[in-house]
Amino acid sequence: MGTPDFAVPCLEALIQSAHTVVGVFTQPDKPVGRKQVLTPPPVKVLAENNGIPVYQPAKIKGSDTPQVLQSLKPDVIIVVAYGKILPKDVLEAAPYGCINVHASLLPKYRGAAPIQWAVLNGESETGVCVMQMDEGLDTGDVLLVKKTAIGENETSAELFDRLSVIGAKALLEALQQIESGTVTRTKQPKGDFGYAKMITKDLCPINWSKSAQTVHNQVRGLQTWPVATTLVNGNTVKIHQTVLTDIIAANAKPGEVTESRKRLLVCCGDGRCVEIKTLQAEGKKAMDAASYLLGHPIAIGTLLGE
Questions:
Q1: Is the pTM above the cut of 0.85?
Q2: Confidence class for position 62, pLDDT limits 50, 70, 90
Q3: Which residues are bridge partners to 148 per DSSP?
Q4: Among residues 120, 281, 124, which one has the least CA distance to residue 207?
Q5: Calpha distance 227→236 (Å, rounded)
Q6: Residue 133 gets which letter from DSSP?
Q7: Strand partners, 102
Q8: What one-character DSSP code corresponds to residue 53?
Q9: Where does the chain have alpha helices with state H?
Q10: Beta strands 235-248 and 228-232: pairing type?
Q11: C-alpha–C-alpha distance, residues 175 and 260, integer Å
């Protein structure tokens, strides 16, 4: 059971392993792009290319999903970013229940967007947990943990790709331990350890009064969607990439452009400057700062965000 690109390496790993995938559940096809072309989820494409039966119920609760699962007779149900809440009769539809691959170090960052929030919050480490699902939200016993450092300039999109591969390897390892009876089950502590809520466009506008590190984390965390934004001379511009600098602009205001020739430097609330590496004007393609400034000059002293 899975839907987006993140779930694809797990399904690929299962297909290439000694396990047999008897069926794939994924979200219904959805309209994509300006022309709203009906597009299948990545997991569906992979499954169909490998001759695996695909099921796309619009809802799980109150559907025939439990009956379909009974007919497939799975030993275990693997859930990777499926995007639907599973009721008890589905969680218990296989002898080994439902095993989830979750992209955070539980109990931290339960919820829908753990990768983005780890970057937005400036975490230096994250990872993947393979978890036995229960009726709570990412609260089940943890079976396996794989940790990885987050790079200083690593974006959520880059981390997404890395964790999807780490997750696939972790899944196969956990299944081997389950089969051999050597798996260790660690109960999660009770309590609120931070919920990774859905990412929305409300998070996009940059508040330049924040620290340079916070601004940099925002740009990295919202890449490649929905992308951080700022106002430049009253026009909304997307900020795709920044890097931290050691430059302190003691007399500059937050959001003030301190250099705008070959590179674009902006002062943040702590006096430290970030360098904007890649940006995008409305209706235009993203480009490096030097190229952007040739066609869209920004005067030194300009206040971004106003």
A1: yes
A2: confident
A3: 126
A4: 120
A5: 12
A6: -
A7: 129
A8: -
A9: 8-16, 42-49, 65-72, 88-91, 114-120, 156-180, 212-221, 289-295
A10: antiparallel
A11: 54
